[in-house]
Task: inverse folding
């Protein structure tokens, strides 16, 4: 695991996705971007494809994906519902059957601040979709990731991780009252911890993992938030104008692209990144909107979450 400290990359909050490549060409590379057909996921797909990669975009709504991705060369589509274990297995098996190695996996898709919903297993939807779905997907794709010897996996976290560490004793809110933002915070902390656990397991195979806070971006991710809530949180003003702290989707995609491709991250891994740099580690009680809280990079907690994730999904990574 790399030290959790900035490397002074020279990039920043307003870096665009294409700039974050650092000039690297991706011809012959294969990438998968979940949720890669809307918001910052679409800009991630576009940047990787324009650099020469073949980008596979799995989608829960294939018709919507097809319309959004029309005209982008080098993009393939497939069906995937991260809340459905059978769908995850079907997508992964289809990819593995192609015999290709996987160079880049960006676990980008997410839901945020949703009302209490549960999947078919009874698991709380934000934890199940944002974390467990991607845990299972990555495990199923593990043979293809190892095959190339130099793969990178990007796990989309959020500054929302500061709300709460994961509750490993009550991940599905069966003992406590549901709160949509606490659930989101737990899931995003889990996304960061997944990168810690995965990087540890990936190093012997040349697979490195990163957690990314993309920044605030106004996208379809906010679909469960009414306008009055966005105003109350200062995200938009009375006229509906987005706060200047927010990024464009391309700027939001930049840190994912940087971690997935940039030569500055060769030999790095297991870190939480933001604004195209490794983030500062901050105290647990820090009130700011940047930096990573201790629980999101805690190696012992990452191991406990890993074991719980294996139990909840019934999936193990192949040795």
Result:
């Amino acid at each position: 695991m790399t030290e959790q400290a900035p490397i002074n990359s020279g990039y920043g909050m307003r870096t665009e996705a294409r700039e974050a490549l650092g000039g690297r060409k991706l011809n012959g590379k294969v990438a998968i971007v979940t949720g890669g057909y809307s918001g910052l996921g679409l800009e991630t797909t576009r940047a990787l494809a324009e650099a020469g990669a073949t980008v596979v975009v799995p989608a829960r709504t294939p018709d919507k994906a097809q319309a959004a991705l029309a005209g982008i060369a080098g993009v393939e589509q497939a069906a995937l519902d991260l809340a459905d274990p059978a769908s995850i297995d079907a997508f992964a098996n289809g990819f593995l059957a192609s015999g290709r190695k996987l160079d880049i996996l960006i676990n980008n898709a997410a839901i945020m601040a949703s009302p209490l919903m549960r999947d078919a297993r009874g698991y709380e939807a934000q934890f199940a979709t944002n974390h467990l779905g991607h845990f299972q997907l990555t495990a199923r794709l593990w043979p293809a990731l190892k095959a190339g010897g130099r793969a990178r996996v990007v796990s989309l976290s959020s500054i929302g991780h500061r709300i709460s560490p994961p509750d490993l004793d009550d991940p599905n809110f069966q003992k406590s009252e549901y709160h949509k933002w606490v659930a989101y915070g737990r899931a995003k902390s889990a996304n960061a911890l997944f990168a810690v656990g995965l990087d540890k397991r990936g190093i012997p195979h040349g697979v490195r993992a990163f957690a990314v806070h993309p920044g605030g971006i106004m996208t379809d991710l906010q679909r469960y938030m009414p306008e009055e809530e966005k105003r109350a949180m200062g995200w938009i003003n009375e006229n509906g104008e987005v706060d200047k702290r927010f990024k464009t989707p391309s700027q939001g995609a930049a840190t994912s692209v940087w971690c997935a491709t940039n030569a500055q991250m060769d030999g790095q891994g297991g870190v939480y990144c933001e604004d195209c740099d490794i983030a500062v580690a901050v105290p647990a009680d820090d009130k700011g909107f940047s930096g990573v809280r201790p629980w999101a990079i805690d190696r012992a907690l990452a191991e406990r979450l890993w074991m719980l994730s294996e139990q909840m999904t019934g999936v193990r990574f192949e040795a």
Remarks:
- The longest strand covers residues 54-59.
- The chain has a mean pLDDT of 92.
- Residues 139 and 317 are 5 Å apart (CA to CA).
- Strands lie at 30-33, 54-59, 75-79, 104-107, 152-156, 208-213, 271-274, 277-278.
